[in-house]
Amino acid sequence: MAEMSDMQIDVDEYSRINEKAKCTFRLLDLLGASETRSAFINGLQARSAEITDARDYFKPPSQFERDEFAKRKFESAVKEYSTLISILKQSVSDRCQPELSVFNFTVYAAIFADFCYNDQFDLARDFLEKFLPIQECYYESIIEEFSLVLDEQDVQFCLPLRELKSNRIVVRLSRESISEFRELIKSLPLISDIVEARFELDTSDEPARSYETVERYRGYLLGEAPLKMMKTKVYSGIFKDQALPILADDSTRFFDIDGDLEKPKKKKSKSKDSTTTRKQKADPNAPAWGRIPFGQLSDTWKLKRHQMLSEINRKPKANVELRPTAIFYAVENSDEAIDAITTSEDCKLLFLGYSNSSITMRSLNEEPLPTLKRAEELESLNIDSDDIYTEMLEANPTEVEYVLTGHTGEIYSLSYHEEKHMLLSCSQDKSIRLWNLLTRDNLVAYHYDVCEPTDVQFSTFGSYFVSGYFDGAVCLWALDRPSPLRVMLGHYDLVGRVRFHPNCNYVASCSEDRAVRIWDLLNGQCVRLFTGHKASVQALEFSYDGRWLASGGEDGRVLVWDIGSGKMMHDFINHRGIVYSLAFTRDSRVLASGGTDRNIVIKSLVSQNSSTVVNDTNLLSSTAHSREHTFGVEAASAQYLRFSLRNVLFAFGGV
């Protein structure tokens, strides 16, 4: 390698000298300095006389020489990688072996990529096949993508290879493990060069981790999240008026976002109860209200928020000890496949997106769907009326279902906004459409022309929405702008789900690249990277208190993360198929998951001997006994889950 590199430098130097000479000749000709030109030529000839034939000296290696060099490199790679595997199994200390075991696949992938980048595809394939049997089974799909690379063009379409070329593999090690690893690769020059060029060894001050802990975070091609990223401050708290109210009697106070206090009528009591006068404390981890500009909140929004919090205040606590109530809706006899499902906050309205590009809006309680009155009727209304918003609407007593048309491709995702009575839909036709449900009109179509959108969601505050795309992009939009405000890049494969944090300062995304990311909307930076899924991630959901983020994958796992610390708090394996849907109860104490195995699992997130939400001191692992209930659904898989304000679980699926 060194000889070829030196030769290339000499050839480049020869070219530069030759070009410089030509420029000098042209300059001397312009100046008319013929004698100087002759002297320069004589000097150059005298200098080149030391080399009998410069062209032969600087001649690039022949194809035979390149093949021989590649062959020797392949033999060295096989020998060194075999030695590395042997050392990792036999010569490494017991304390460091779990952490250093991650180099089994990562070095394997890096050597394969190095052969491909040098157009040595036959050798790359031979190396891939030779050591395939010793790789972990959950890397099988990535290795399968590697095996399809046969030429330079295939490299451009292999997403894992493209990612390895532009990013380093992050390996988190204790100081003891790093010291031991550097010592053992001193005798492996080829692997040492690859580690130096393609790896980032992240030093942790903590002791070496156990095999169980290391294995919990494996699965992502590029290793783990850098420690620097995970130490970034994340405001995981929620605004004061969003916080779940203190469960007291009817005299509990509610505060709106502007700090206005609303007092219900006081009840007569013989003695004062401190719980009735407690103010709802602001979350110290909540961001400042103006950190992201949301604009002025309407009176309608405040009223609905107050009503919702009042409803939540009357709910029973989520209790897995008792079998919870679950209602499953199966859509039968549909001519087209159902690809998108969402509901209103109170679970009274259902929205279905079909593969034939149509969208159905249906009332679940058989109440007629409201529409806006005609213009001449609106003109006659008294705008000063307290019930003006109600008076603007009318309803056909027989209309409980309506179909929206406008897309020309399969519907991928839907999102409903309670206050605005609007619906967002994204489709295979590369558009995101905004619908006014009171007039049944398509107001605008948003386009990100690079590729198709995969998911879309409204923000709770302001007029924002977020979308994910097939190329791995995550975009933040404003309703009044035709183009994205932010385009956040980091995923290298399709983004399956995007979700706003309850405080709307952050957005989470999950991808088929097996990673979950959290983005700060203030600057578009990735502030959290969660790894651990062994296959693509298909489901994502924030808890209502803003502290937790749950993800479900094709591997049947459900992982729960603490957003503030970046730690994995739970690792549940309750499904035998893909996990498609997740839902938290309103108090964030219970998590429900639905999958293709047609099971709905309701899992407690509280410790066995405590009524408080579990923290990192009493983490529930996948093997620990936890309170749960499983509902078997014969009709269909649960594509969508939501807990109502009273913690009744609503589940939906298409037959």
From TrEMBL:
Please give the InterPro entries that the UniProt record associates with this protein: TFIID_NTD2 (IPR007582), TFIID_NTD2_sf (IPR037264), WD40/YVTN_repeat-like_dom_sf (IPR015943), WD40_PAC1 (IPR020472), WD40_repeat_CS (IPR019775), WD40_repeat_dom_sf (IPR036322), WD40_rpt (IPR001680)
Region listing for Disordered, in residue ranges: 263-289
Q: Name one GO molecular function term.
A: translation initiation factor activity
Check the record and name the Gene3D superfamilies matching this protein: TFIID subunit TAF5, NTD2 domain, YVTN repeat-like/Quinoprotein amine dehydrogenase
Q: Which keywords, in A-to-Z order, does the entry hold?
A: Initiation factor, Nucleus, Protein biosynthesis, Repeat, Transcription, Transcription regulation, WD repeat
| Top-level taxonomic group | Eukaryota
Name any GO cellular component annotation. transcription factor TFIID complex
Q: Domain (TFIID subunit TAF5 NTD2): give its ranges.
A: 75-182
Q: Which ranges are annotated Basic and acidic residues under compositional bias?
A: 271-282
Where can this protein be found? Answer: Nucleus
Q: Where are the WD repeats?
A: 404-445, 488-529, 530-571, 572-613
Which Gene Ontology BP annotations are present?
A: transcription initiation at RNA polymerase II promoter
Q: Does the keyword Iron-sulfur apply?
A: no
PROSITE patterns given for it?
Answer: WD_REPEATS_1, WD_REPEATS_2, WD_REPEATS_REGION
Major subcellular location class: nucleus
Is Nucleus given among the entry's keywords? yes
User: In which family does this protein belong, per the annotation?
Assistant: Belongs to the WD repeat TAF5 family.
Q: What is this protein called?
A: Transcription initiation factor TFIID subunit 5
Instruction: Please report the organism this UniProt entry assigns to the protein.
Output: Trichinella patagoniensis
Q: What gene, per UniProt, encodes this protein?
A: TAF5
